[in-house]
Please model this.
Amino acid sequence: MTTPVALTIAGSDSSGGAGIQADLKTFAALGVYGASVITALTAQNTKVVSGIHQVPAEFVTAQIDAVFSDLVVGAVKIGMVAQPATIDAISAGLSRWSPKHVVLDPVMVATSGDRLLAAEAVEALRTKLIPRASLITPNLPEAAALLDEAVASSEAAIKSQGQRLVAMGCQAVLIKGGHGQDAESIDYLFDGKHTIPLAAPRVVTKNTHGTGCSLSSAIAAGLAKGDSLGTAVRNAKTWISAAISAADRFSVGQGHGPIHHFHKFY
Model:
């Protein structure tokens, strides 16, 4: 029996709710073996990001090559990339190893509001990583930032932005509706031909730290197990909704607490 393996390339969250830690918890919760390439260390908690220490690009390269030279990686999730040199290292690594599935979560701002992507790195993200992605998973503010536009406030505007993001070269785009205000949280999946709305009841909780990281990781986990993109996205949406619904079982931190990755187990 082949063990499904997913790799997360992302930053570390010292409070354990987002980033590498959330990705590995997600992989484990969904029955996938997780490996990791750390791009940055953050000093953060549920309230604030107080410091970011960049991992040198050459060491990002060393981690990528170490993992791919030994493990059979079924899918890659990319989160916080932080700086242009890191993006160059990741892009070159993807070119060398050609993983079948790449899920890119264009992490720009933390739940706390702290910026996680240098302004000069945005263009490199657009031109070097988006074209290599099977799927990108921006939320509404991130989709707008990638296009240098205002945040979409209507379904028509969301669809327009989704189509233009696909035109940047990725295979598909999932624009996440969690920042909306309606009773339902609607994500929109665009594959260049079809637009698929995916609705779930909006959960009222302040414990949403790591939601975006975990959703993209859940999709990568599904792809690593051999699911189609549509199935992986739908299953991930169902799982993340349950993890958010169970978040208030936790009492962790004084700000935006984590979701409950292991809600099925305890």
